[in-house]
């Protein structure tokens, strides 16, 4: 699944009209970032990418409707791609369980990508490790079921966004380590020095053993537009050498 995010970030967040996305889904990916770090915008950009020609629809799960479509996440927000994104809003953990367990009964084409935004809101209802493991396993099983329905050589990708806290305690670290057993690939959004009216992030993508770690700088400009540049262009920044661990927060 990291390949979808890599495509989105490498070309600056745009989903090019008429471009077909055919790469294999890859391992499930956990998208990590603080509140307001741009996780939803990046998920939506991935949804637009996966909704390209020749692919199945995208299932986007979130607890509440998006207030507005993120800016800078597609060439004029291609309406043909938007029509292929199915939003569903399970309001509780039990409703999310019910939706995932009934996925085999859903009519129509199977999704090529399953996205869940705000995992922490569902886990807050049942914060124990057993409940977290059960939800993670259920998400993987649902993606595997969709992959089976898609047919040979086609997989349903899975990306789950989880909010992190700057002052994480040992319990948070253990919780994250548990989830990473189910989601081998990871993408971290870290705050970076920002200019007036801007919100700037460092994005670190690790594809779960399928390639090298890659980094970008993402800037949300005053109008909400998303500008993306490779991190190596900021090599003079002393923060570029921070963190080199292969797992956990960079």
UniProtKB/TrEMBL annotation:
**InterPro entries, alphabetized:** P-loop_NTPase
Q: Where is the composition biased (Polar residues)?
A: 241-250
What are the boundaries of the region Disordered? Answer: 227-250
Q: What is this protein called?
A: ATPase SWSAP1
